[in-house]
Amino acid sequence: MLVVGAGPAGLSAALALRAAGMEATVLERRGPDAVRPGSRAAYLHGASLATLEKLCPGLGHEIAAEGVMWSTKRSFWAGREIFSKTYPSLRRSGLPPFTSLPQVRTEDLMAAACRRAGVRFHWDAEVTSAELGPDRVRLNDTHGGSWTADYVIAADGSRSPLRSAAGIPLEGPRSQNTFVIVDLDDDPDHPVPIERVFHYHHPGVGGRNVLIVPFAGGWRVDLNLLVDDVPESFTSPEGLRRWIPKVLPAAYGERVRWVSTYRFAQQVAARFTDEHQRVLLTGEASHLFAPFGARGMNSSIPDAVRAVDAVREALSAKDTATAGAAISRFARERKEAAEYNRACASAALEHMLADSRSVRLRRRAAAAIAAAGRKAGEWLDSAPYGPKLAARRAARTSY
């Protein structure tokens, strides 16, 4: 079986193929030593850890052990604390409810597990064209190599050549506001409590929203810019030294590891398979979400596992109609899951941006009574990550 892409979705697909006793070959456009900067998708849900543990016993525990967990979460409104909660110790003998680890390290651990399982990697093999037929798929790469397979799992990212070859667009909006994402190295001389902290209207940065999250080895700070802001004034070395000491100890202004800006897409592929039902789209090849609630990578893993299930069903089918039905079920189920996750991420993004008057009024009212009414503060704390019911449903259904 061919898998295109060696990110979380592609590596999950490769592990799932080997767990099912099938051969797995991964084509990846990057070189084996390529470095991907930034923490990126740093938060793994407990359901993702459990899935990886099932595919490769020990892997979920290995990833969890390297990551960071926090027991306390806090939210502030204009500098005033409106909610805090500390849970009992999250360290336990089983898998934890989450872990926070830079994506590149998660990928390293997954790739090592793939190699132990006998997955074959072909690096520097960027797919340049694809011929999609009723019986098989033929891929061509930058080195003139040619690859054929009955089915291909496309995990080749947001600019997916396979999705383009199939003529399948991504559909959905992109946020107007820019978000600045900064990774900071730990400063042992100026330790910060290992807590997740969200600020509405942080007074130190002109009333902009700020999210501060720890990960193994450092901190991620998300700054929600206003529509008229000039991003470069916040991402330049001078700009970073100006605003970071307003939200963390001053020394962190000199500990920037990586900085980037995003206008978050809320997009889902029109279809999750081609007209011949030979290419199965997974991960960012099939959906892009705002990161609130960490639904991107955490839905890419079940995308990949379900794609392998569908391919296995199709290969064992007695006729083409039954095989096609297996792929169609995958495409329908994962598109439904992606649309659900997009709705959850959109609700979180709408709450964060507060572009509508009704959202602004509801947030202000909750902040005004948060000191006396814990439920109001709890809502303000959880809303930037999406509806609570959505998170519970996602966990139950492996969305």
Q: What does this protein look like?
A:
- With 399 residues, the protein is an alpha/beta fold.
- The chain folds into 3 domains: 2-68 and 92-173 and 266-349, FAD/NAD(P)-binding domain (3-Layer(bba) Sandwich); 179-262, 2-Layer Sandwich (Alpha-Beta Plaits); 354-397, no CATH class.
- It is 38% helix and 23% strand.
- The chain contains 12 helices and 20 strands.
- The protein has helices at residues 8-19, 46-55, 59-66, 103-117, 161-165, 232-235, 237-247, 295-316, 320-353, 357-369, 374-382, 388-397, and strands at 2-4, 25-27, 43-45, 72-77, 80-86, 98-100, 120-122, 127-132, 137-141, 146-149, 152-154, 170-171, 179-185, 195-202, 208-215, 218-224, 256-262, 267-269, 279-281, 287-288.
- It has a 7-stranded mixed sheet, with helices on one face.
- The longest helix is centred in the C-terminal third of the chain and has 34 residues, at 320-353.
- It starts with a strand and ends with a helix.
- Mean pLDDT is 94; it is low at 390-399.
Summarize the structure.
The protein is of the alpha/beta class. Helices cover 38% and strands 23% of the residues.
